[in-house]
């Protein structure tokens, strides 16, 4: 069966520090991968999605970047965190864009 | 761009029915989804409906789709305290990623 792992579960980082969140999927190949951010009262905002290795689409210009170094690995990064980067970050995968999305358990990031 | 709107809060008494509403703008939506998010967790698919259907029933859940008005609703019969969560409406068309609404926080009062 397929599983999705996302870590860490919680993170407190100072302003200006770098960020690296990792997501891996097991039990499937060539998944579509997504990073969402959930801020209070703002719902789920799609940040990046990838249909294959090295292919990244950015939905919102911001202080973040994403990479897909391997088929089932998706990384969210920042060189210098801002206070506004605080939120709940969710990784997800689908077999096709229209299919059911499976979500990781999320990372609660607090930038102080 | 595509937009999905939901009311932010709903409060119901245990045993009553809950109705969560959603409107969307994309006339070429192929699937419409309802996801449930429990506190501090990711989202899980609750149910979905194809755009050529008007209604889908799954145990306590009933999904109604009015394609003309681009209106989707989720009815939960006999709402229980365990149904307290945030419910997200989402739609998809073609090869574009899911577009989510802001989520409706359902509070069930015992």
Walk me through this protein's architecture.
The complex is a heterodimer of chains A (112) and B (110). Chain A is 0% helix and 59% strand. Chain A has no helices and eleven strands. In chain A, a hairpin with a 2-residue loop joins strand 7 and strand 8. The mean pLDDT of chain A is 92. In chain B, the strands form two sheets. In chain B, strands 2, 4, 5, 9, 10 and 11 form a six-stranded mixed beta sheet that branches. At the A-B interface, strand 4, strand 5 and strand 9 of A face strand 4, strand 5, strand 9 and strand 10 of B.
Cα separation of the termini of chain B:
40 Å
Structural class call of chain B reads mainly beta
Q: What's the story with the biggest beta sheet of chain A? A: 7 strands, mixed
Distance between the termini of chain A: 38 Å
Overall number of strands of chain B: 11
Compute the average pLDDT of chain B. 92
Question: What value does the average pLDDT of chain A take?
Answer: 92
Helix residue percentage of chain B: under 10%
Name the poorly predicted regions of chain B.
none
**Number of distinct helices of chain B:** 0
SSE-based structural type of chain A = mainly beta
The largest pleated sheet of chain B is described as: 6 strands, mixed
Task: Tell me the series of helices and strands of chain B, N- to C-terminal.
Answer: EEEEEEEEEEE
Which two protein chains have the largest interface (Cβ within 8 Å of the partner's Cβ), and how many residues from each?
A-B, 24 and 26 residues
In short:
The complex is a heterodimer of chains A (112) and B (110). By secondary structure, chain A is mainly β.
Please outline the helices and strands.
The complex is a heterodimer of chains A (112) and B (110).
Chain A: E1 3-7, E2 10-13, E3 19-26, E4 32-39, E5 43-52, E6 55-58, E7 65-70, E8 73-78, E9 87-94, E10 102-103, E11 107-111
Parallel strand pairs in A: 2-11
Antiparallel strand pairs in A: 1-3, 3-8, 4-5, 4-9, 5-6, 7-8, 9-10, 9-11
Chain B: E1 4-6, E2 9-13, E3 18-24, E4 31-37, E5 43-50, E6 55-58, E7 61-66, E8 71-76, E9 85-92, E10 99-100, E11 104-109
Parallel strand pairs in B: 2-11
Antiparallel strand pairs in B: 1-3, 3-8, 4-5, 4-9, 6-7, 7-8, 9-10, 9-11
């Amino acid at each position: 069966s397929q599983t999705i792992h996302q870590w860490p579960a919680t993170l407190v980082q100072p302003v200006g520090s770098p960020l690296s969140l990792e997501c891996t999927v097991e039990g499937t190949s060539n998944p579509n991968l997504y990073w969402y951010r959930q801020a209070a009262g703002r719902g789920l905002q799609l940040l990046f999605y990838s249909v294959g290795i090295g292919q990244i689409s950015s939905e919102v210009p911001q202080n973040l970047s994403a990479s897909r170094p391997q088929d089932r690995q998706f990384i969210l990064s920042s060189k210098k965190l801002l206070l506004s980067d605080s939120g709940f970050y969710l990784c997800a995968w689908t077999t096709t864009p229209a299919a059911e999305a499976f979500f990781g358990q999320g990372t609660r990031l607090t930038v102080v | 761009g595509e937009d999905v709107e939901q009311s932010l809060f709903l409060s119901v008494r245990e045993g009553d029915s809950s109705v969560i509403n959603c409107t969307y703008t994309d006339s070429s939506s192929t699937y419409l989804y309802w996801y449930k998010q429990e506190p501090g967790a990711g989202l899980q698919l609750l149910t979905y409906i194809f755009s050529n259907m008007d209604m889908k029933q799954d145990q306590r859940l009933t999904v109604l789709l009015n394609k003309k008005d681009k209106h989707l609703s989720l009815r939960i019969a006999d709402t229980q305290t365990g149904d307290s969560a945030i419910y997200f409406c989402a739609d998809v068309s073609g090869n574009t990623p899911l577009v989510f609404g802001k989520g409706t926080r359902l509070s069930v009062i015992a």
